[in-house]
Amino acid sequence: MSPFHRLPDLALRSHGGSVTAASDESFAEKESLIRPGRPGFRPETFGNKGQVYDGWETRRRREPGHDWAVVRLGMPGVIRGVVIDTAWFKGNYPTHASVEAAALEGHPSPAEVLAAPWTEIVPLSPLKGDAEHAFEVFDEGRYTHVRLNIHPDGGVARLRVHGEVRPDLSVHDGLGLDLAALANGGLVTACSDEFYSAPNNVIAPGLARHQAEGWETARRRDGGNDWLVIRLAGRGVVRLAEIDTTNLLFNSPGAVALTGVEGEREVELLPRTRLQPDTPHRFRLAVREPVTHVRVDIYPDGGLARVRLHGHLT
């Protein structure tokens, strides 16, 4: 696995991504490109357009050119890697693909996006059928959109765009915000265990629909406890903590504690506090010291659906 796989998928539908335009989607819809989870497949399942695929598939081109799809990133940022997955497309995959990126402010229309300047971040590269293709990106630009170009036509199951979130936090000037949120630039930088699910899930947008959309550890047998460290969107004062154990019925932690960190300085934000299963918890915090990171300790192990740390940037 490439190092960039650990970074959030900026394009994921559940992170706010959208496939805003495509040259063609005759056989399978473009929206499938950014669905969460692995692509599924049921052989000999036919609809009006042929075999049903969990992906994006274009018609067979009979003229020069190539097909493309434009994705608005749910979380703008610096792209560190792209994955083009042709899962289940064995006789109908593109032979080559490239990826471009663009940066636009505001809420542009699809036509305005297509007319914008584009930068190639993945050069034209060969593809195989039914395979994941990982491409590291070496570009420090902040982007809001990507365009997948497939040559000449065919099907792609998923497009993953991993990177570092770079939001426009100026909209929060004078207001509070969730300092831990992925969408605001928060990131889990360290974690004791991620046996069942990824720790960055706890700061993802929206609510967890099931256990796999939160963070869950293995059962500890050593007498210790599990933890994770969240790098905040910026140096700030945390005023309200939300610790959500929704969907964790028999595997929620017994308790939680929060510690603010800035350099070598640590400050107790929330002492060890009892938790209930399948419950959103809200705790007002009295400490007013600014921090850059927050350590979340759970006792002894288990899972959390979401962690929200509301406050103000300093």
TrEMBL record:
Region of interest (Disordered), residue spans: 18-49
Keyword Hydrolase attached: yes
Annotated signal sequence range: none
InterPro entries membership: Allantoicase, Allantoicase_dom, Galactose-bd-like_sf
Metabolic or biological pathway: Nitrogen metabolism; (S)-allantoin degradation; (S)-ureidoglycolate from allantoate (aminidohydrolase route): step 1/1
Residue span(s) of domain Allantoicase: 16-165, 185-313
Enzyme class: hydrolase
Family annotation (Pfam families): Allantoicase
Enzymatic reactions: allantoate + H2O = (S)-ureidoglycolate + urea
Domain of life assignment: Bacteria
Keywords, ordered alphabetically: Hydrolase, Purine metabolism
EC number: 3.5.3.4
NCBIfam families linked to this entry: allantoicase (TIGR02961)
UniProt record similarity statement: Belongs to the allantoicase family.
Name of the featured protein: Probable allantoicase
Organism whose genome encodes this protein: Nonomuraea monospora
Taxonomic classification: Bacteria, Bacillati, Actinomycetota, Actinomycetes, Streptosporangiales
Protein's gene: alc
